[in-house]
């Protein structure tokens, strides 16, 4: 027991002390009050959301939209069309999303797997742990992409942890920021209760806050968390 307490103390030693007014559910309420509903995921149907989840790896959403528009224009936004497409052609359609050769391989692998499962519809019948395990077995799908797919394509109560989550909550002193993915996922799920609509909205709000306000160089002056954020004074507004 003493060993665990010492390890915990060591782990939190460099972390800013969180303000007692801030909790994981409390941050949600503030972000929602400041930004309103985000209506995520921007995508038409489960398969398009799955494609978007792969293409959004390491790139901004605007670039993904261009790649998806190319697929639509080529009438290639289906598992069969993507599997059958020549890799060079597919790579050309995916080019706007960056890392297009890697994403070509990943998208083909996911579509092959979807076809082996009999399409998207049978996947919706799988239990969440089974579906998550299967997704994690597909080439190029890691925990964040799998959880994007589970939450947004299949409406499962799985919390998505991304770089924005780590940055914002570490600055708030609520996490260290370098915990293993599963540790953070379980922490958010346990503290929020298992609700897919809530997780959907919360992740979208975290992305908007991390992208527009709590950036690498944060704009604390416009932040709805600033009065309780222990990092507010150590991160000057952009332009200073
Ligand atoms: S006050 Fe600044 S550092 Fe704290 S959450 Fe807001 S933007 Fe991030």
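-> sequence recovered:
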């Amino acid at each position: 027991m003493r060993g665990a307490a010492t390890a915990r103390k060591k782990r939190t030693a460099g972390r800013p002390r969180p303000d007692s007014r801030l909790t994981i559910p409390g941050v949600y309420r503030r972000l929602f009050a400041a930004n309103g509903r985000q209506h995520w995921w921007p995508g038409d149907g489960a398969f398009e959301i799955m494609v978007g989840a792969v293409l959004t790896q390491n790139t901004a959403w605007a670039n993904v939209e261009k790649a998806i528009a190319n697929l639509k224009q080529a009438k290639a936004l289906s598992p069969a069309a993507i599997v059958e497409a020549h890799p060079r052609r597919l790579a050309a359609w995916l080019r706007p999303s960056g890392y297009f050769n890697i994403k070509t391989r990943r998208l083909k692998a996911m579509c092959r797997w979807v076809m082996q499962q009999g399409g998207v519809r049978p996947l919706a019948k799988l239990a969440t742990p089974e579906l998550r395990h299967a997704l994690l077995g597909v080439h190029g799908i890691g925990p964040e992409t799998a959880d994007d797919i589970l939450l947004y394509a299949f409406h499962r109560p799985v919390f998505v942890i991304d770089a924005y989550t780590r940055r914002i909550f570490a600055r708030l002193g609520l996490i260290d920021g370098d915990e293993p993915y599963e540790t953070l996922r379980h922490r958010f799920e346990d503290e929020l209760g298992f609700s897919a609509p809530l997780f959907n909205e919360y992740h979208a709000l975290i992305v908007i806050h991390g992208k527009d306000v709590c950036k690498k160089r944060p704009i604390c002056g416009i932040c709805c968390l600033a009065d309780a954020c222990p990092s507010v004074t150590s991160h000057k507004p952009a332009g200073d």
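The pocket of iron/sulfur cluster is lined by residues 168, 171-172, 213-214, 218, 220, 223, 225-226, 229, 231-232, 235 (CB under 6 Å).
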